[in-house]
Amino acid sequence: MSEGDEQTAATATGREIWIEKYRPQTLDDIHGQSEIVERLQSYIAQDDVPHLLFSGPAGIGKTTAATAIAREIYGEDNWRGNFLELNASDQRGIDVVRDRIKGFARSSFGGDFRIVFLDEADSLTDDAQSALRRTMEQFSDNTRFILSCNYSSKIIDPIQSRCAVFRFSPLSDEAVGGMVREIAAAEDIEVTDEGIDALVYAADGDMRRAINSLQAAATTGDVVDEEAVYAITATARPEEIESMVTDALNGDFARARSTLDTLLTETGMAGGDVIDQLHRSVWEFELSEREAVRLMERIGEADYRIAEGANEQVQLESLLAALSLDE
């Protein structure tokens, strides 16, 4: 079966992945990163693209921006031959830097330069980063490097100083909601306003998560509503989190613990997810400043202990108990 036939079959059976189907093809199509897009377009227009370092959380457009740059420089027909993508989390050793990248950088394929895109570059070992630094110097005449990472602090300073650094921020609710509405319209899916709000809340600035959640929720029924979204994403409703915290602060530990048990066992949330939602929601609760500070302190302590391997349910119950006992 040819590639085209496979794509047609995938579409017909509903197996096409929407995050790839609706991945922006040009910089203009990228949602929510207008300032970064403007600067990147300026580099391309002036034919003066430096080494680039993209940092920020997952699902906000770093990989999409890298491929869009290649498409705009080389054109739709030629960009793949001039673009080498490596995932550093899978290929972390110094040999990858020395062999694959050097081999690609040495070869010529027309044009002024080729692009090496190194995803999750913060997973590279220090030795591999040192080798990469030297490679960036050696082939700077005919190769541009685009590095993507979650934490720029894990990239050694000699590499950072050789790159134009772009810090991608989590996408705004408006950007995520707008993209979700566009996809829903294109796929002829009925989505309620409450469903859109739930998708935006569950995504927390991650476009990829929002699109995946929409596709998953669309398979559960004719209408994507709030209930379908929270069920498919294993996300607690904001009011459930607020109710649990309020009960604990009011001294009703048993009721707060019951809500927590429901979230962990029936909703299927992980302890870390509960912590994340608590942290996101602290300042949205109608709490006094003193209560908010108490809650933040307890969240930080529970988060650290869970990260160190402690039992999630025990730590979360301990958090609620401490809130119930504090005066």
TrEMBL record:
HAMAP family: RfcS
Stored Pfam families: AAA, Rep_fac_C
InterPro entries in alphabetical order: AAA+_ATPase, ATPase_AAA_core, DNA_pol3_clamp-load_cplx_C, DNA_Rep/Repair_Clamp_Loader, P-loop_NTPase, Rep_factor-C_ssu_arc, Rep_factorC_C, RFC_lid
Function: Part of the RFC clamp loader complex which loads the PCNA sliding clamp onto DNA.
Protein name: Replication factor C small subunit
GO terms of biological process kind: DNA repair; DNA-templated DNA replication
Domain named AAA+ ATPase: residues: 48-172
Biological source species: Halorubrum hochstenium ATCC 700873
Family: Belongs to the activator 1 small subunits family. RfcS subfamily.
Quaternary state and interactors: Heteromultimer composed of small subunits (RfcS) and large subunits (RfcL).
A GO cellular component annotation in the UniProt record: DNA replication factor C complex
Binding site for ATP: G56, P57, A58, G59, I60, G61, K62, T63
SMART domains (UniProt xref): AAA
Keywords: ATP-binding, DNA replication, Nucleotide-binding
A GO MF term: DNA clamp loader activity
Recorded name of the encoding gene: rfc
